[in-house]
Design goal:
single chain, 1 helix, rod-shaped
């Protein structure tokens, strides 16, 4: 797995493209800390008729 095809494979998996074919022999990058992970998308606020005074 070397060459442009492996680079495209790493790009699909989200690895930095700079690792390229050399990334195949390197261990995967460490997982991101919880603070680096963006929070899930919050649902929109309920409509006015659902809100109670």
């Amino acid at each position: 797995m070397r060459g442009p095809r492996s680079v495209a494979l790493w790009r699909c998996t989200g690895w930095p493209s700079r690792r390229g074919a050399a990334g195949a022999d390197s261990p995967p990058p460490p997982p991101l800390p919880p603070a680096a992970i963006p929070p899930p998308h919050r649902p929109p606020t309920p409509p006015l008729w659902r809100r109670k005074p």
